[in-house]
Amino acid sequence: MKCSPILFFSFLFYLLSFPLLAQVEAEKGYYIFPIQTGKTNFLSGTMGELRPGHFHAGIDIKTKGVTGLPVYAAADGYISRIKISHGGYGWALYIAHPNGSTTVYGHLLSFNDKIAQEVLKKQYQEKSYTIEMFPDPKDFPVKQGEVIALSGNSGGSGGPHLHFEIRDKEQRVVNPLSYGFKEIKDDTPPSAVRLALRPMEIDSRINHGFQWTDWPLSLKNGHYEITDPIAANGKLGIEIMAFDRLNGASNKNGVSSFELFINDSLTYQHHLDLLSFVESRQILVHTNYEIEKLRRQRFAKLYLDQGNHLAFQQQAYGDGTFWVEPDSTYHIRIRMTDAYQNKREVRFTIQGETPDRSEIPGMDKSKAPYGFKLAGNILKYWEQKPADEYKESLLYEGHARRIKTADYSNENSQYYLIDLYDGIPDSIKISSNTIRPPFQIEIPAASNINFFHKNLKLKFTKNTLFQDLYLNTDYQYDEKLKEEIFSIGETTIPLKSNFYAELKLQQAYEQEKAAVYRKVGKGYSYIGGTWEEEKVIKFKSRSFGQFTIKYDSIPPKIHPIIVNNKKCKFRITDERSGISSYNAWINDQWLLLHYDYKTNMIWSERLDKTIPLKGLLRVEVTDQIGNKKIYEKHIP
């Protein structure tokens, strides 16, 4: 059976809060809390929380670090869906209710006996641990408060807990905390950590320079603030790093609502009350993906960036960006509200100033004599040779040459800004230094484009990109590692969907044991690929980075833990490409194996538990490249 990748799907979709809250208010009391009912509970995750690659749906309920607690049906209904997967929600149940809603219970340890018996039969019928069932309403009717399962840690869970969702008639996830469960206590307002400003156009300035800038926030007099006014000019966007805590728990959860006021005028708002699974990856443009990659800090944008089509703001307020005019003062308030209506504000002031071509000290310090950085479509480059007069740089594009004067300077460097919409220069000369921007082509978002460059072919579909891309690629041969390395794009650029690549290799490979891998940190992640010719391999990827060809000729390892008449348990591992499939047979009869990728454990479950495991046991584990390991033992 194939190991499913960890799937975590969720997507933020905002409807105006008034209709939703009216619906919630009318149905309070319809559901009971699904675990430890009537007792105070604590959460490790809340609705709409910003997670890597997705918005969190529903709530995560702590189970005191243990598994096996009774899980109750939140309301009358019937089991409408049963799913077992290696990742995602692991062992999960879905209950359809008479009011048209559905409740979801994830990361379970086991199902109640009636459900478990039918699931086990289905697994043996399909000879697969992973299954999905859609029972008829008459198969598994349930009453409110009935035990349907035991809590666990299955699937993509980081520890024992119950994942719980309430979905509406359209299978969108509604915030369970809106239903007034008394088991959850919260009188703690949200917290803000840092605030950032982003220049949105080439003439925008923050403290007289063109750079994304952030500040720590201080809590004073009941609100967060930046003490000193910020000098700025032009079109800006605001980003915030914030979290919420509930009573009795130290977890940093998500903030339900943000409202941005500029001089007391509501400019932007969003409410994390309703989630849809259609476009989960749009969180990658709702947050600052580059900063998350570089600094491991997650800033939410209080504006709509290119590629963000999440309808969580009222269009009457525009896209959330705003203009700062010289000699004007802007008093900014950001109101944060959690699901229990606890509120707290962030306050600061922006003073509009005409850029005086003198940036504040200390910005963009670098040991290199010159450098460049791309921000959207604006290329910023600099030279560390300050002078009394602003120097000119020469831009070469094809046979054309144009002169560009420095836009501003500080005590260290002179800075230049150009808009790549006007063309990508082949080279830039400042004094005796030459900068060669690596960008080879502009690829507009939502377009189908094929790109050919030396020993590389790339295909971008209309669904690949969130935002316009200035693509850079490179090829190197690492003499030390004896590896061909293909660099495609920047890891700080998020992708909506796959791009397709064809590598024309310079070296010959033993194709049966060779595949494409992407460099991740100090290691490598298996990609795979299809060999087309002796030195041509095709693959697809949903992340940019460095790609190379690596061998995997080592089969997986099978380490027996328990092998007896009642149960077989093994630890399985693979050093490079990863586990692809696993199976077991007892006297040539297929034997179900459970699998937990987090612990690398597989263990048996018999269809008829009265029949002992006796005879020849055969366990077979295969990795992604096709290497196979077989374990055999005769059980007396």
UniProtKB/TrEMBL annotation:
Residues 55-123, 142-173 form the M23ase beta-sheet core domain. InterPro entries: Cell_wall_metabolism_enzyme (IPR050570), Dup_hybrid_motif (IPR011055), M23ase_b-sheet_dom (IPR016047). Residues 1-22 form the signal peptide. Gene3D superfamilies: Glucose Permease (Domain IIA). Keywords: Signal. GO terms for molecular function: metalloendopeptidase activity. This is M23ase beta-sheet core domain-containing protein. It comes from Persicobacter diffluens.
